[in-house]
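Hey,

Quick one before I head out. I ran the complex with adenosine-5'-diphosphate overnight. Inputs first:
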Amino acid sequence: MPKIKQLSAHEAQKIAAGEVVERPANIVKELIENSLDAGATAITIMVEDGGKKLLRIIDNGCGMDVQDAHMCFVKHATSKVECIEDVTHVQTHGFRGEALASVAAVGRVTLLTKEATALEGIKLEVENSIIISESIAPHTTGTDISVKDLFFNIPARQKFLKSRDTEWRHVLQLVTAFCLDYPDIHFKLFSESKQILNCPPVHSLHERCEQIFDTTASRQLLAITATKDNQRITIEGIISHHQILRYDRNDLYFFVNKRWVKNHKLGTALIKGYKNLLPASRYPVAAIAITIDPALVDINIHPRKEEIKFLHPRIIESLIEQAVSEGLAQKTSSDIAPAIAEAPVSYSSSYSVFKPFNFDMFAQQSAQSYNSYAPIANVMPTHANTSSPIGDTAPLSFFEPETVPLQKSQPLDVQQSMHTVQECADYRLIGQFNNTYLLIEQKDGLYLVDQHAAHERILYELFAKRFHDVATINLLFPDLISLSEDDVTLITPHLALFQQHGIMVEQFNENQLIVESTPIHLKNISCNELIREMIAVIKEYEHIHEEEFFKAVTEKLRAQMACKAAVKAGDTLSQEQMTQLLKDLYQTENRFACPHGRPTGFLLSTYEIEKKFKRKL
Ligand code: ADP
Ligand code: MG
């Protein structure tokens, strides 16, 4: 008995359709692309039940005549190419003639279309790839396609559709991507008859971002650009400042030659550009358009062309990283500050925006003491040639502080702090709350500073800018760190980096390192954890270009050193130590965020407090 039978054309088509259509968002993509190919300037998308019940796309493009309306549902029927040679220089989104044939195989389709020269439109209804009704219908120029009851005829596929919310999120993200990719097109999106997006044409990506992301975010957006290899690669985009954060990567949009692509590595490169400004597991908002010689990309690795492969991915990634870090660097703390101060405090899915504290008065008192508020138990004199109480002094070099650090026993200098208050009417250090936050009264409210985050920022910048001046001490008992042989082999070539930062570490044997001296700030802190963290960092960045690797690893090392050396939540600080902390914080370049991106402080405005007490409505 022969076992082989040919599938009926319709069954074959239903199976083939699976490649193009997996979920409602895939259909939306194909239909919007068709509208763009048809020269539409306005496209409306309507969705019910996440697209499972209804998807409808209405455009004002060129429309179709009666013959084309019939042909468009036939497999491999396209107006865009005639032969394989055409494919190499095709400018349109589609050219395979598969989308409408697939859609007609998996949903109940109604097509209404009219060309500009036609007097009336034509209406076709299609089910199971067969035209079941045809009529003349009034219509304006353009095309209106509805797809109802997706997979009504393929229960096995229907069951794989996700919940309404999940499918809707995919549609929303897709339409958002089109909006960002085509600022000159008027897009409208409705869900369950409710208008979700309305984006009239604008002239720039920046304006489009303002239409899409909520106002708080759009006021915090900045433009970035970069080019490489004589314009064969250009990058243009909009990114958010590091205060605007999301909990996932869904608001990172990348376009390659006007095509929205999903490429995890591009996102990672963008995030790396933020250096240490983003907290762990928080993501910015970004829309990045990459224009590249088509010969340098392969778009055909995915049947729906959603993914992309670059011939030289590292070049693109480092260009993005560089564009982001340069864009952010140009915005100094000082010009970020007024924008933050004006921004409304609440923001839907963002980390809250914090307002800057008026530190101006501190600028006048410039005496620096980087150790005066080190954890009190660890404090020791840092003058050159001062013997360490726990061992030999063999400093590499010293940063000479102008003030002698405080000892815990030293009484609070209340007089001095009172004097400070009188000197500056709009500021008063109230004290420490919960041994963690400094409370500061100022003209417009109560400012809270996180002592750990603030100190981390100060030390990070000290290690970054003045690490040659950081005092070191010899350990009385050198720290032996046991690691796997592999890890010792991995880290040994990088020990010079630690040595440059005052951590005298060497290989002791095949599975141990020995630390003999550390910066004074890290005294009493085991380097074990730090070294293990850095091994993980080296592994993460191992594959990247040497110069960037060095930069990235150096930054991580500084951030980790700062974190370990900083005062902790729970450490009691004296009045003077607090004053010093604020003074030093003021002198940092980016005083609003710790190296991990957490805010160093925020303002509880007098207005908010009065509202709580119902003094103000
Ligand atoms: P492709 O886009 O690959 O050509 P499709 O199945 O998506 O294949 O569409 C088939 C044809 O139907 C297109 O080539 C085009 O001529 C026509 N068509 C589809 N959608 C529209 C539309 N919105 N406006 C005008 N013509 C359309
Ligand atoms: Mg198409």
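The first strand starts at residue 42 and ends at 48.

Talk tomorrow,
K.
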